[in-house]
Amino acid sequence: MKRKHICLLSLFLTLFIITSCSTLAPQKGDPAIRKGDFAPDLLGETLDGHEVHLSEFRGKVVVLIFWKTWCNACRIELVNAKVLRHAYKNKFLLFAINIGEPTRVVRAFKMHYLLDFPVLVDPRTRVFSAYGIRVWPTTILINQRGQVCWTGIGSEVELLRQEIEILLEEKTA
User: Fold this and answer.
1) Of 143, 172, 137, which Cα lies nearest the Cα of 157?
2) Count of CB atoms situated within 10 Å of the CB of 7
3) For residues 111 and 133, what is the distance between their CA atoms, to the nearest angstrom?
4) pLDDT at 28
5) How far is Cα 145 from Cα 152, in angstroms, rounded to an integer?
6) What is the pLDDT of residues 83-103, one digit of tens each?
7) CA pair distance 65, 78, nearest whole angstrom
8) Which of 47, 70, 88, 119 is most exposed, with the fewest beta carbons within 10 Å of its own?
9) Which domains does the chain have, with CATH numbers?
10) Higher model confidence: residue 9 or residue 109?
11) With the C-alpha atoms ordered 145, 147, 149, 151, is the resulting torsion angle positive or negative?
12) Report field, pTM of the whole predicted structure over 0.90
């Protein structure tokens, strides 16, 4: 009888865990913000707690990557974006915006992966909500006027490279 109860309890717990995980997983889909929209001004907070605003960077091409520390695709995207940034000799700005995780965890991640670009936090998920992020990593490319030019879901560094190239050519033309 005990064995039957243990089996039933195990089955119940397994089903509970499976259904709980599926409800916690982000839903697939593009962000609510669309190509041509002006991007929200607030980008997040530095690891020291200072707010960063997009309006400070008008006239520059800006890439935003929304991510989580435990997300494998996010790690790949951040490392690939770092390489891309260096390939273009820092001709665009890159911000990695962490969604809702503790600053100490994000700081440790930044040091571990040697990220040499601004890593911001969004502790109250205000930026996450303003951009309508539904899945991570989500990458958003913003032109020199502050408008969204491209959005990508997952690791799409080659598409990002192509879109950055277009914007940088527009700037020099």
Assistant:
1) 137
2) 10
3) 25
4) 57
5) 20
6) 999 999 989 999 999 999 999
7) 8
8) 70
9) 29-172 (3.40.30.10)
10) 109
11) positive
12) no
